[in-house]
Amino acid sequence: METLGNLESFVRAAQFRSFSEAARRMGVSAAAVSKNVARLESNLGTRLFQRNTRSLTLTEAGDAFYAQVADSLETIQAAVAQVGDNRNVPAGRLRVNVAPSFAYDYLLPLLKPFKEKYPAVIPDWHLTLARADLVGDGFDVAIGGGMELSPGVVARELAKLHLVAVASPDWLEGRKLPQTPADLQGQPGVVTRSTDTGRLRAWTLRSAAGETFDLTLDPAAIMNDPEALCGCARMGMGAALVPMERAWPWLQTGELVRLLPEWYVDLGSVSVYYSARKALPAKTRVFVDFLVEHFRTTMGSRFRGG
Predict the structure, then answer these.
(1) 140, 166, 191, 200: which has the highest count of C-beta atoms within 10 A?
(2) How many CA atoms lie less than 13 Å away from 270 in the CB half-sphere?
(3) Residue 270: exposure state from Cβ atoms within 10 A (0-12, 13-18, ≥19)
(4) What is the CATH class of 4-83?
(5) For residue range 86-121, what is the model confidence (pLDDT) as tens digits?
(6) How far is Cα 77 from Cα 84, in angstroms, rounded to an integer?
(7) CA-wise closest residue to 162 among 302, 293, 260, 291
């Protein structure tokens, strides 16, 4: 019977098309991975990879074998990890992919209470704007909005992601406070571009009553970052549509005023993404539960625009 080491070496090498990368992910040497794969091929009596100096590709037999064992290996490893500690104490490195601004404002303040509760869990956070391949990149958890659910990944909502209209008291001075979206249409604004098309964004506002309105502002400044949008709005450069959670601190101090408080743009939600496997590691399970509970009880109003 094959060892888990042989099977994992094969599966990781197949996933990353590289013995070196498989070794790096497993924390062993490339020579060890190559030896394990060679032993597996010998035991099976067939070649699983075509090797040359530049590439590593699966043979037909290797491709068929990978399809049969890849998911099973993940399940077995998770079961072994969970059963191996009868106390089921959350422990080990917890690899998290998250955007820097979200981490600074919402995750880092939670790190101390989480560590006090689960001291054996070691946070291994990767702060980046790049979207993670949760399984392929070896992350336990990813946090963000609008991420596509790939096979084997599930999501739990943390908070709504709403844009709200804001402006500074200086900008509003001498102007009539907008009562309807039509009053704001065409007004000077701090706007942003679509990341897909490069065109200036027009947003669809919606109300609690289910009404909608397509709002376009006259560009006074164009920014591609929510903090920059808020900063320009605070300087009185125009009205702006910004994430509620970015505007929230300035709404509390009065440096920004919310316009059209019954209206907002619905961009979906911020969620925590993790593996759908049944035997989820305790470290992942407690971290997800910790985040969901915290956002549900204390953070919801900072994100909701309606």
Answers:
(1) 166
(2) 25
(3) buried
(4) mainly alpha
(5) 447 888 899 999 989 889 999 999 999 999 999 999
(6) 10
(7) 302
* Calpha distance 255→289 (Å, rounded): 35
**CA gap 222, 229 in Å, rounded:** 8
Rounded percentage of the chain residues whose pLDDT exceeds 70: 94
- Alpha-carbon distance of 123 to 127, in angstroms, equals 12
pLDDT tens, residue by residue, 57-91: 999 998 999 888 888 877 776 666 655 554 478 88
Indicate if the alpha-carbon torsion angle 225, 227, 228, 230 is positive or negative: positive
**Alpha-carbon separation of residue 131 from 62, 99, 143 (angstroms):** 30, 9, 9
The residues near 206 (Cβ < 8 Å, ≥ 6 apart) are 212, 213, 263, 264, 265, 266, 306
CA 34/CA 147 separation, integer angstroms: 35
Q: pTM (2 decimals)?
A: 0.66
**Ordered alpha helix ranges (H), the chain:** 4-16, 19-26, 30-44, 60-83, 100-102, 108-117, 169-172, 181-184, 226-234, 244-253, 282-294, 300-303
Q: What would the two tokens of residue 172 be? A: 């509003």
